[in-house]
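Hi everyone, sorry if this is the wrong subforum. Our group has a chain we'd like a structural model of before ordering constructs, and none of us has done structure prediction before. Sequence below.
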Amino acid sequence: MVQTAAMDAVVDVLHSEGVDTIFGCPGAAILPFYSALRGSGIEHLIVRHEEGATHMADGWSRTTGGVGVAVGTSGPAGTNMITGLYTAHADSVPMVCVTGQAVSTKLHQEAFQAVDIVSIAAPVTKWAVQVKEPAQAPWVFREAFRVARSGRPGPVLIDLPLDVQQGIINWDSAIDAPLPIHPVEPHQPQVERALDMLLAAERPLLLSGGGVITGEAHEELVELAEYLRVPVQVTLMGKGSIDEDHDLYSGMTGVQTSQRYGNASFLESDLVLALGARFGDRHTGTLDVYRGHRSFIHVDIEPTQIGKVFQPDLGIVSDTRLFLRALLDTAQRRGAQRGPSAWTARIADLRATLTRREDFDSTPIKAPRVYKEINETFDDDTYFVTAIGLYQIWGGQHQKATRPRHYQVCGQAGPLGWEIPAAIGVKKALKHTEPNAEVVGVVGDYSFQYTVEELAVAAQYNVPFVLIMLNNEYLGLIRQAEIPYGMNYEVDLHYDDYGSDNVGIMEAYGCAGRRVFDPEEIRGALEWARKETQRTSRPVLVEIMIEREANTPHGPAIDAVREFEPLPESAA
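Answer:
Right subforum, don't worry. Here is the predicted structure as tokens:
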């Protein structure tokens, strides 16, 4: 057997697991790993903060479907990664975080930067482990990738004491390979029962969750929907699993991130087949209203998800793609194909009437107008990144998604500052397959401040993307100063009047920015930003100053939500 450095074996494992980019920050306790990484062919981006590394790995993973890798040294480097681990764990994103550690003999002596990161990370990972012996290292990494990918995907943390990293082991990469992942196949009697329930329902819906995207089941979803003519809804994490212009798309149900016709069609349904969805509280609202008198079939690859929020009428543990394939095959074998129905006609009517207005031309700018311009400016090939706050709500309501893995959003954890590092990860994920693809981050003025230092990473490594900021800070300060709306904002306002000079921040990092006050200027600013990212190979900001407070019509409520806009009579 060939003798090799333990960390050289680890890098061999990373190569064979499909890792082409790593995001991290070196330090003394992780230097043997970095030494092995040098000259390996794996690209490494030095981040400004370890949380940024995890969000970059997160964006890389969501785009490729592979396992993202983030690296940090000992002590606070690991604790800085916890938010990113939590985000990946909440959204089922496969990731491996590697931390350096003090030498094994000093761990019980409160050595410098020696923290029990395994215990700290355990609640927000699928597996957190410290490697005790050098010979374990490649095998632990093999298992980490298997765990991250299998079942419900998620993050793993590997802690590497310095002396373990320095070990020499027997290892021959020429005869090694990734560990197999066994698919979770559906039980055929349950498939038959699910089809029986679907065919018996008068107003069924398919509910596509994030598990449809992570399970690469979007094609089967659409094929089944078209064969049985069953309308499809998506959750926030399932956005993009079906083209929102498809005639069977029936919107998104929710308390905030929803379409008006989505809530209406859901409340009229009599059966919901939920695929890879976890029934989050912002989706369900009040459970007694959400459940109503309709039946539920819940399909999930993770057994403990079924019955966690409420007991379904039928629970099925399965990979979503394998289940949809089996259901379609069963339907075809039984000749169950159906054509248009009164229910699909009703969905079309709701889509045509229960909409939200977007064509506002008033000043201050209204957020829906921004999303109208986004939808009309960028094409289906664009990759979008967005996070938490009002703009996540507006994005769910107004922004169209047509393809899987093209609309990346941190759903459950909702960390501020996710977008900039995630956009870097998305762009690096496309370097081999779609190097010219556009990446767009939609951010808020507050979230922008949290990881703005990672702009330096994008500038250093020539990672171009467009940032669209919805800034609702300035209007409240204008009101306080009693400044009339009709004045020339560009002349009479300075950044001190409405918070941070975000354009100035961009320029400080060697990136360009432009501020917009007039809705008629949005389109031109976006086109300018697209060209400027190509010219400079750096991020470019379009900061759009929107009204501070706004009411959004929600449609029929699944929770105690006020309706600010009257419903059309035909849909009331």
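For your construct planning: The two ends are 75 Å apart (CA to CA). The first strand starts at residue 3 and ends at 5.
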